[in-house]
Design the sequence.
């Protein structure tokens, strides 16, 4: 089961990263460029926190974001 929201998975997919470390690096760069009061900043901050502090299966999240899961994996 996914630990990320649909918006977080979409953001993660849009970054087109090959692994969690690269995604975290890009998210950290984005945090410095975005206005603090923006909705995107909050989304980036939340996703970054989840990737760092929760056990997130990066491959699983990327496959669910693009709908590549088999029926067996969903059940």
Sequence:
């Amino acid at each position: 089961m996914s630990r990320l929201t649909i918006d977080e998975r979409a953001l993660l997919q849009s970054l087109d990263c090959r692994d969690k470390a690269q995604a975290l690096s890009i998210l950290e760069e984005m945090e410095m460029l975005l206005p603090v009061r923006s909705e995107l900043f909050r989304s980036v901050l939340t996703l970054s926190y989840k990737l760092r502090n929760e056990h997130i299966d990066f491959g699983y999240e990327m496959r669910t974001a693009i709908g590549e899961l088999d029926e067996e994996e969903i059940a």
